[in-house]
């Protein structure tokens, strides 16, 4: 079975470079990323404190084994006091949070008054703008924000073909078209992924995320302009100038399954700026299904 070549980082070679008294916290959304980050932090001697976002990660038993509390989005005003109470010095934002807090339902508190300007500004700036504003707000209050890739560098996709299957000449045309399209919508803060078939982009990621994009491509196979066309590639890459400490583009076993169901030949991700979750399982499943996974040369430095 293929293994994931990893991007060489200081954390990979020397472990987490944190003070002995550092306390790592994880704001956990949905998916497997918070689980992998928590295990990576604990494995390096920093048992994490988990903030389980209600409705997203509060049902994951793998996270409940660590010290944790559940927090509703509408109680966001209590986040900083919660982190301070647990002496959190370093924080990772990991996993998908599918909805945003409804401002009319925010729970009033003195702490909320301090963060309302941050929340309002963040909501007005779109997804990546939101992450940048939140990260700056936390660091202004003495909490260092880290990326998941700094805790678990082995998640980061390396450059090159990572599977037994390799792209054909026609696939490279699709990869080029998909990469250009994904970067274009990323510049507009719309999404991180595109699907290309026959040398042109045929579907772009929107608010429905990558799973919805692949479902849409599957439906397109049966009718319209791509009826009868074969192969095709899903391309995911970071947005230009993206805040790399949160929301890096990622793929996992479910992505591979959905890409195969959509009739695609493979997946391309931006090396150094994308994550491969559940790496061994993801690559193993791709090999079983005959899909390729390739890491593309990054368009920007790996650390942004």
From TrEMBL:
<dbReference type="Pfam" id="PF06230">
    <property type="entry name" value="LpxI_C"/>
</dbReference>
<dbReference type="Pfam" id="PF17930">
    <property type="entry name" value="LpxI_N"/>
</dbReference>
<dbReference type="InterPro" id="IPR043167">
    <property type="entry name" value="LpxI_C_sf"/>
</dbReference>
<protein>
    <submittedName>
        <fullName>LpxI family protein</fullName>
    </submittedName>
</protein>
<dbReference type="InterPro" id="IPR010415">
    <property type="entry name" value="LpxI_C"/>
</dbReference>
<dbReference type="InterPro" id="IPR053174">
    <property type="entry name" value="LpxI"/>
</dbReference>
<dbReference type="InterPro" id="IPR041255">
    <property type="entry name" value="LpxI_N"/>
</dbReference>
């Amino acid at each position: 079975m293929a293994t994931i070549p990893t991007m060489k980082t200081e954390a990979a070679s020397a472990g987490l470079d944190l003070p002995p008294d550092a306390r790592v916290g994880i704001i956990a959304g949905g998916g497997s990323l918070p689980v992998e980050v928590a295990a990576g932090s604990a494995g390096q001697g920093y048992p994490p404190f988990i903030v389980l976002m209600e409705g997203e990660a509060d049902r994951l038993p793998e996270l409940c084994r660590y010290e944790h509390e559940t927090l509703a989005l509408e109680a966001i005003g209590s986040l900083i006091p919660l982190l301070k109470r647990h002496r959190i010095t370093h924080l990772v934002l990991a996993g998908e949070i599918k909805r945003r807090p409804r401002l009319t339902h925010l729970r009033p508190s003195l702490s909320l008054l301090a963060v309302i300007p941050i929340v309002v500004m963040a909501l007005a700036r779109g997804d990546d703008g939101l992450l940048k504003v939140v990260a700056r707000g936390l660091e202004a209050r003495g909490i260092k924000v880290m990326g998941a890739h700094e805790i678990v560098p082995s998640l980061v996709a390396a450059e090159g073909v990572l599977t037994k299957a390799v792209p054909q000449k026609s696939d490279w045309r699709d990869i080029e078209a998909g990469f250009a399209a994904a970067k274009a919508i990323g510049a507009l803060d719309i999404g991180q992924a595109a699907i290309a078939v026959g040398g042109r982009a045929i579907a772009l990621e929107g608010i429905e995320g990558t799973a919805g994009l692949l479902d849409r491509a599957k439906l397109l196979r049966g009718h319209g302009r791509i009826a009868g066309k074969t192969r095709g590639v899903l391309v995911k890459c970071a947005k230009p100038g993206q805040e790399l400490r949160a929301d890096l583009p990622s793929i996992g076993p479910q992505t591979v399954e959905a890409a195969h169901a959509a009739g695609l030949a493979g997946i391309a991700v931006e090396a150094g700026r994308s994550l491969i979750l559940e790496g061994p399982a993801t690559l193993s499943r791709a090999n079983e299904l005959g899909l390729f996974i390739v890491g593309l040369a990054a368009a920007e430095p790996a650390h942004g």
